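Mods, move this if it's the wrong board.
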Amino acid sequence: MSKAKITKVGICLALALVLAGGGIFYYNTAIKEVGELTQEAAARDDSIPADGIVYIEPEMVSLADSLSGSADSQAAAQAAFDIVNAKRQEAGLSALSWNSGLEQASAVRAVEASESFSHTRPNGSDWWTVNSNLMYGENLAKGYATAGSAVDAWLASPTHKANIMDAEFTSGAIAIHIGSNGQWFWAQEFGY
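Not the wrong board. Structure tokens:
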């Protein structure tokens, strides 16, 4: 198998932790590594068109459009994004820009997380396959009903914090899906 050298690839880790106060924090994140990658991974990294326009599969757009969420969950997602950017700026990093493609991917991943809380999608494919042109990092959480509690949990985890504080990430989005039992599922996606 031929290989090509590129500098970014997502690797997923998962570990569930039960926090004081009854919240469940999932140590789910993607880490970047430097090294030799397969040609498929190199093609994935180089597949963003020169004009910057990325097309998302129509079924993903349709699903994301139907997942707009409640006003409360939308406000919480935006508040969490704002907190993340404030924390980045406190650390001397630039703010992430909101990316509508990552927003759609986050909406899909939040729903999928409610079905199967994992970086493996319910259909068995990798998390980044929702939009492989844009998605390079992911944090998931469930059981938090406020932006502050979700972001605090991510920041308490070294690998989640590494995603949030990664200076190479320039864009992102957060979406929340409220499950049938009222539990909130958070998906935070990052891109370059």
